[in-house]
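In response to reviewer comment 3 from the previous cycle, which asked for concrete evidence that the modeling workflow produces usable outputs, we include below a single protein chain processed end to end. The sequence was submitted unchanged, and the resulting structure tokens are shown without manual editing.
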Amino acid sequence: MNTNNQTGRNISLIVGAYFILKSVINLILGGGVSDIVIAVAEAAALYTGLMYLNYVVAAVAALIVIIHLPANISHFTDNWIYLLEGVIDIIFAVIICINPNVKEHFTNKWSSNSGSK
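The workflow returned the following structure tokens.
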């Protein structure tokens, strides 16, 4: 898949790699395989550079943080690492939404081929 900005793609790949690494570590700590599936899907979406997928990935990451936030706050002494993880997730979500290089990477058009030539 082509990119319109290699620096933006590299940043996106770093974010995607972080999501995958985080989910593998969470699996070791007692998480589920579904976390890895979501992380791989997010990384693949970030690689494509298709329009608006950066916002979708950021929204998914933020939603996951919001869902887990109450439990992580209520058990702060046991879950401080997950709060830190949530902060990093939000930072990366903001980066893939506002970084100019990343935004330029996400300018690939969705295919409009309808089968006719």
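The chain is about 75% helix and 0% strand. We consider this sufficient to address the reviewer's concern, and the full set will be provided in the supplementary archive.
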